[in-house]
Amino acid sequence: xSSPSHQPVSNAPQDSGAKDPVVPVWLIIVCFMLVxxxxxxxxxxxxxxxxxxxxxxxxxxxxxxYQVFGGPDPMVLGAQVYGRTxxxxxxxxxxxxxxxxxxxxxxxxxxEKEPGRIIRIVLHGFQGPGLxxxxxxxxxxxxxxxxxxxxxxxxxxxxxxxxxITYVRGNAEWGNHASPVTEEQVxxxxxxxxxxxxQPFSPTEIKGINPAE
Length: 213
Known about the structure:
By secondary structure, the protein is mainly α. It contains eight helices and two strands, in the order αααααββααα.
């Protein structure tokens, strides 16, 4: 009886026909495009990782131009001031009272490029016939308070006036998108009218004033 034959066992790896995976060309192109898009996005929106620049500002110069510096957030402070001094006439929603107290929502007065007129109105008050807001007449026989002439807490500081005007002019929910107002702008107009007391502006007088001055 013959003994079974033994075949030598090879330890060499068997060729299964499998090949190393190859990255598809389209995937390389997609990755490149994503990297490129990310670089462009940061260039336009991120100030190139400058921690002092953030959306919606795209550069340090842009931030310097539009940012309001110092003290509390003017939009937050402005909302507080508006809530305690303005809602009685202009209403919490800024729509005022038809024919009597003019609206601040979408107001052509509020959204003027230069805020000189509205600063004067808040500082020294407003009264008289002839007021039109967005083409609608309003009876202004009642006087708007001269908040800049009263002593605290009824009166407002330059910082508070700047903040409340900034809040109203920048309230996007009201359709307002005007630039912020600084404390320095309020102070300059206050100093210009330092001798004016108990003389509210009339619509005729305020219309004759250059809002940029």
